[in-house]
Amino acid sequence: MERKIGTKRLQLIDDLVNHFVIHKGQFSILLESINSNIEHSIALKKLIHSTKARIKDPDHLRDKLIRKAKEAEASKTPFHYTKENLFATINDLAGFRIIHLHTKQFQKIDEELKKIFTEQRWKIVEGPNARTWDDESRSYFTSIGVQISTNSNMYTSVHYIISPNTSSAITFEIQVRTLMEEVWGEVDHTINYPHKSESLSCREQIKTLARVTSSCSRLVDSIFATDEYERNRNVNIVERIPSKKTAKSAPKQKRK
């Protein structure tokens, strides 16, 4: 039986959602700022395939708060969301997504993002945190010192929670993922958000899609790794080929 929420708590949730709607402009400014910084970064422009920005749908926020309220009642714990802490406690009210082609681009993307955070005096509240179910992905992110979180939903993305240099307590989320991970994420989000699909077939197919897109990511990684190897190999071969001048033998001396 589904747990019901009292009228007072529902009114509080409505007030919180309205508070967010009134202040949505602050989140728009943040997203414009991060987008502008990325657009003007020559290094990042070379690494990034595309970007996306979004502000949370108020109905989705309401749904999330209702779920949190039900969880609080079920566990007999306080529902601690208030107007004062809403923007700091719920970190995905605004989100910016960076999409790139292959996995090993992430390390350089991370370096360039951190330069922007430092220049803008934005605080990294959390991250980078690689949320992944795949053993090879976990191995890669561990090797470059990125914290990992196991994800049972077969979701893969690297997350940052950022707090800008403002007087108000506000946070937003940055996600970094490959184009193949984006394919899975968009399908899963459409089918399973904000509520899981009731279709067992769809849920199982989405799990299969996660494995397929993971394999595709590995293939893309292999293509770029091979391309880099061949380019370096060709450069080394060219460097070893003597020039025409040095290849000519010294002129023979005339006999007296």
Largest sheet: 6 strands, mixed
Number of strands: 6
Mean pLDDT: 90
CATH superfamily, called what?
Beta Polymerase, domain 2
Low-confidence segments, given as residue ranges, are none
Q: Approximately what portion of the residues adopt beta-strand conformation?
A: 15-25%
Strand order of the largest sheet: 1-2-6-5-3-4
Topology:
Layout (H helix, E strand, L loop, with lengths): L6 H16 L1 H16 L2 H6 E8 L2 H18 L10 H4 L4 E7 L5 H15 L2 E10 L2 H9 L3 E4 L6 E7 L8 E7 H14 L7 H41 L3 H4 L9
Parallel strand pairs: 2-6, 3-4
Antiparallel strand pairs: 1-2, 3-5, 5-6
Helix pairs in contact: 1-4, 8-9
Q: What this model shows, in words?
A:
The radius of gyration is 25 Å and the shape is globular. The protein is built from ten helices and six strands; from the N terminus they run H-H-H-E-H-H-E-H-E-H-E-E-E-H-H-H. The protein has one domain: Beta Polymerase, domain 2. The termini are far apart. Strand 5 and strand 6 form a beta hairpin. Helix content is 56%, strand content 17%.
Provide a brief overview of the structure.
It is built from ten helices and six strands; from the N terminus they run αααβααβαβαβββααα.
Descriptors:
single chain; 256 residues; alpha/beta; Beta Polymerase, domain 2; 10 helices; globular
